[in-house]
Write a structure and sequence with these properties.
The structure holds two protein chains of two kinds. By secondary structure, chain A is α/β, with parallel strands linked by helices. Chain A has helices at 30-37, 40-43, 56-64, 77-83, 109-118, 120-124, 131-142, 158-169, 174-177, 185-194, 206-212, 222-225, 238-243, 245-262, 265-277, 285-292, 316-328, 336-346, 349-359, and strands at residues 18-23, 47-52, 70-73, 92-100, 103-108, 148-152, 178-182, 199-203, 216-221, 230-237, 378-382, 385-389. Chain B has two domains: 4-128, D-Maltodextrin-Binding Protein, domain 2, CATH 3.40.190; 133-186, Winged helix-like DNA-binding domain superfamily/Winged helix DNA-binding domain (Arc Repressor Mutant, subunit A), CATH 1.10.10.10. A five-stranded mixed beta sheet of chain B has the order 2-1-3-5-4, sandwiched between helices. Chain B is of the alpha/beta class. The chains are: A alpha/beta, B alpha/beta. Chain A binds chain B through residues 51-58, 60-62, 64-65, 67, 87-88, 153-155, 181-187, 190, 196, 273, 276-280, 282-286, and chain B through 35-36, 38, 40, 55-65, 68, 76, 78-79, 85-86, 89-90, 93, 98, 133-134, 137-141, 144, 163, 167, 170-171, 174-179.
């Protein structure tokens, strides 16, 4: 925090001081765990209980039934909930992104060997292209063998659409050439070993855990599919945000501080400890440490960006990119104007800016940015000077303007 | 119509009791499965009208996917159009029950089935004292705290040293912190 930070007593008091927030046992729940265990919530007058859910479906139920005040969510969940695609039609919004990146695609050892035999050249590429997989698919079809099975973690997940993006870039049609499934991350490694799955896209610590078990080979991380792509968001019901605006703002401040704290790799060892020691993540601690501290260029497969590059800003164009992926695969049949209304409702940079202003944090002045345009770090005008932004390169070299198609 | 039900539960004793109760209420339990079975294969083979699943199982998300695949697959009960659905879903959630049903099952049958499952899960919990998901997180946390306290006492460790000790043993044995903590509490002379 810089010196221009206003004294805390100037902040409006939250309407409520006791909250229950939902999360899944995943590395990118770290901002919620850190905000609770390191006292950021308490400093903003909030007593928070973190409810660890077992499934995204359970978390969605908790949100739609009003059992949770807010939750870690996949970026498409607020949109799917608002449109009534996922559960009961319930307007849900997000005013903060928890992290960028962190997923990876892993295949079984057997499929890895087949891919190498089918197209050794494609397997030498960095990142590894799905071209070799396309060759294996052709061979299997010619031999009359059943379709390979790939899994992601939820129908409305970033993993699902990142996996499809990678497949399509290499010439694999996910609907025609493969059988796509949903398998919870704690089960993917054993299903890969059992031969029920040939590959999957999941987040940390589950890729690192499977790699340690040597049950498969990690092919590509999500940063290589969409550099600094949005991964998890913090979401609340729209009606809740309207009823408790100052509580929401206090939660956003605490999460922003926790994300800034998580930016330093050294603190992430401490975060890994909090996740394991306080009962949130029942996974060997070294696996959590290794995956939490992944850093570098090019981004190692498990790398999560929690704060730098305006990571927490809720870009309307991030959700539009995911919505565009849904449209591409005929998963979203909403007219453009209705979708536009929904994006404005579900993504709330205005609320983010209020919380960031409270803390004196620099934020972007626009709500939309292009994706696939910046191949290296770049600079964006912010409320308090320039913001160093990360690359937003897309695997296939596409340029996504981020604007409404009209 | 007789409603064909699939039970997905990691606790055989509880799922046997639920099968019996559902049978007595006029439902046809086609099979019981656990988390480590191939749900895609089972669902395609037995084509259930409804699924009762332990809400603490991550495999709920697999059922969500199947629910998106077409009309013949059961949908999460929160999506039912009935007015009382949220209340029933809330009760089921607090009992640790999740249900999935195909659209053409009569609402009265859905209510009856879910109520049988709630009673059955609650009876089992009362009998066995088993923990809900939230209680599990808290109980793991308490186990780790107790193990740390014990280590601090017996080895004159600082709190940090106690954590590092647990971490080291977790690393050597490829266990989680909670598993090492349980081993520490189970035996006074736990050493590597």
């Amino acid at each position: 925090m810089n010196e221009s930070q206003p004294p805390r007593c100037e902040w409006p008091l939250p309407e409520r001081d006791t909250l229950t927030l939902g999360m899944l046992p995943l590395n990118d729940a770290a901002p919620l765990v850190v905000a609770r265990e390191r006292g950021f919530f308490a400093a903003h007058g909030l007593e928070v209980t973190l409810q660890v859910e077992s499934s995204w479906a359970g978390l969605r139920d908790g949100m739609q039934l009003g059992l949770l005040d807010g939750a870690q969510m996949l970026p498409l969940m607020p949109l799917a909930s608002t449109l009534g695609l996922d559960g009961r039609p319930t307007p849900v919004l997000s005013a903060l992104t928890l992290n960028l990146g962190g997923n990876a695609i892993t295949v079984s050892n057997a499929l890895y060997a087949s891919m190498q035999a089918a197209d050794p050249e494609a397997m030498l590429q960095a990142p590894i292209s799905a071209r070799a997989l396309a060759a294996v698919v052709r061979q299997r079809r010619a031999a009359g063998e059943p379709a390979l099975r790939f899994a992601s973690v939820y129908p409305f997940s970033s993993h699902h659409y990142q996996l499809r993006y990678w497949l399509a870039e290499g010439g694999v049609d996910p609907d025609r050439d493969l059988e796509l499934r949903v398998v919870p991350p704690p089960l993917v490694a054993e299903q890969l070993e059992a031969g029920w799955l040939d590959g999957y896209c999941v987040g940390e610590p589950w890729n690192t855990l499977a790699a340690r078990r040597e049950s498969g080979r990690v092919l590509i991380g999500s940063h290589a599919i969409w550099q600094h792509g949005q991964e998890k968001v913090f979401a609340v019901r729209e009606a809740w945000a309207e009823a408790y605006p100052m509580t929401h703002r206090a939660v956003l401040r605490a999460l922003l501080e926790a994300c800034a704290w998580l930016d330093a790799p050294a603190q992430r060892i401490e975060a890994a400890r909090l996740m394991c020691e306080k009962g949130y993540l029942d996974v060997p601690p070294t696996v959590v440490e290794e995956s939490m501290t992944a850093e570098g260029t090019p981004a190692p497969h498990g790398m999560s960006v929690f704060h730098r590059h305006a990571a927490n800003f809720p870009w309307r164009s991030h959700l539009r990119w995911y919505a565009e992926q849904m449209r591409r695969w005929q998963h979203l049949e909403v007219a453009a104007p209705a979708l536009e209304d929904c994006l404005v409702r579900c993504v709330r940079p205005d609320l983010f800016r209020e919380a960031a202003d409270d803390l004196g944090i620099n934020y972007p002045l626009v709500d939309v940015k292009s994706e696939g345009e910046h191949m290296a770090e770049w600079s964006l005008e912010g409320s308090r000077g320039a913001i160093a932004m990360g690359s937003d390169r897309l695997l296939d070299g596409e340029l996504f303007s981020g604007q409404d198609r009209g | 119509m007789t409603v064909k039900v699939l039970i997905v539960d990691a606790r055989p004793e509880r799922s046997r009791a639920l099968e019996q109760a559902l049978h007595e209420a006029g439902f046809d339990v086609v099979t019981r499965a656990n988390e480590h079975d191939d749900l895609y294969a089972i669902m395609t083979r037995v084509k259930p009208d409804a699924v009762i699943i332990d809400a603490a199982l991550p495999s709920r998300d697999t059922l969500e996917h199947m629910g998106q695949l077409g009309r013949r697959f059961p949908k999460p009960m929160i999506m039912l159009a009935e007015e009382e659905t949220p209340d029933l879903t809330r009760e089921a959630t607090s009992a640790g029950v999740s249900a999935y049903v195909v659209e053409d099952v009569q609402p009265a049958l859905v209510r009856s089935m879910v109520n049988v499952a709630i009673s059955s899960f609650e009876a089992h919990r009362a009998l066995k004292g088993e923990l809900t998901k939230t209680q599990t997180t808290l109980s793991q946390r308490r186990t780790i705290e107790r193990a740390k306290s014990q280590l601090m006492e017996t080895h004159a460790f600082s709190e940090d040293a106690a954590y590092q000790w647990l971490r080291k043993h977790a690393m050597n044995r490829r266990l989680t912190i909670h598993e090492v903590a349980q081993a520490v509490l189970a035996s006074d002379d736990f050493e590597s």
